[in-house]
Specification:
With 146 residues, the chain is α+β, with helices and mostly antiparallel strands. It contains one helix and ten strands; from the N terminus they run αββββββββββ. An eight-stranded antiparallel beta barrel has the order 1-2-3-6-7-8-9-10. The protein is globular and about 45 Å long.
């Protein structure tokens, strides 16, 4: 009987911890398609409390039979870095319920990094990349992936 009770107690505690961890997940975390739906980016909260995003899926992962690399990176030593797993969103702080700021976005298409602001809009994210002030920039819309 004591053995049964200890197993039940363990199962109950495990369930409570799992539920608590799930409840603490920020709503911006998860998988998102870029605007063109050519890649999926996984957004997660790191140990430092900031939000990051990395490419975890590409519609066309290969070029000339080999995995695509960051060929447009301005740093020669990074031009052979695979696009899969590449960090494209870095260092975002949650500003309020729907806004994440103070981060950067890297565009592998042109090898440039921009200041960035993310606005959560339900199943969409407004991703605003800019130089200097957000008035001078461009916004793309990412959609939640299943």
């Amino acid at each position: 009987m004591a053995r049964y009770f200890s197993k039940l107690l363990f199962l109950l505690l495990f369930t409570m911890v799992g539920t608590t961890a799930f409840a603490q997940k920020d709503r911006v975390e998860g998988l998102w398609y870029n605007q063109e739906k050519t890649s999926k980016i996984q957004i997660y909260k790191a140990v430092d409390g900031k939000f990051y995003g990395k490419i975890v899926w590409l519609k066309e992962p290969n070029k000339n039979g080999k995995p695509k690399v960051d060929e447009n990176n301005p740093k020669d030593n990074k031009k052979n870095t695979p696009l899969m797993g590449l960090l494209v969103l870095k260092g975002f702080n949650k500003d309020d319920e729907d806004t994440y700021e103070d981060g950067t976005i890297y565009d592998p298409k042109n090898g440039k990094t921009y200041d960035c602001k993310i606005t959560y809009k339900g199943n969409e994210l407004a991703i605003r990349g800019f130089i200097g002030i957000s008035l001078i920039g461009r916004t793309t819309t990412w959609t939640r992936a299943q």
